Amino acid sequence: MKKNYPNMQYAFFNLEDKRKDELPHHWISRFDVIVLGEVVEHVGNAMNFIKRASDMLKKDGQIIITVPNAFSLRSFVNIALANAELVRTDHTSYYSYTTIQTLLESCNCEILNLDFYSDITTTSNKASRFFKILFNKTVLVHRGAIAEGIFIKARPIV
């Protein structure tokens, strides 16, 4: 990625249990965008994590978050057919569009966009891929809340 975007700055740092005054000083109000793709569900203290990420944004900076949707159709089908929940041991939290929205609002963030997605690239099975494409072009258009994932673009309220 650095090869393709040589002017982009990258930072790797555990924000989960840090206070604002523990962040490296040169990271405060430094970044235009912070992407938390499929990360928040792994963090034990998501509120603090998002607040620290917000501290690192410039005045008009944005946070982009994706999380799996706890109320996806896939989850309900799995419960109905296999009588089992889709539980991942590395996930500390599960989010619906309401819970992720509530989390961001409690972190003093304004939601600019909340949308849903269903990834068709996660399977190599042609039949499964066909049904995912069909699902995306029909049901998902009208009932996004049952998609596999949630996409949020937000910014801190200053």
In words, what does this structure look like?
The chain is an alpha+beta fold and 158 residues long. It has one domain: Vaccinia Virus protein VP39 (Rossmann fold). Helix content is 29%, strand content 23%. It has helices at 46-55, 73-82, 97-106, 126-137, 139-142, and strands at residues 31-37, 57-68, 109-117, 149-156. Strands 1-2-4-3 form a 4-stranded mixed beta sheet. The mean pLDDT is 83.
User: Strand order within the widest sheet?
Assistant: 1-2-4-3
Largest sheet: 4 strands, mixed
* Low-pLDDT ranges: none
Q: How many helical elements? A: 5
**First CA to last CA: what distance?**
31 Å
Feature tags:
single chain, 158 residues, alpha+beta, Rossmann fold, four-stranded mixed β-sheet, 5 helices, 4 strands, 29% helix, 23% strand
Concise summary:
With 158 residues, the chain is an alpha+beta fold.
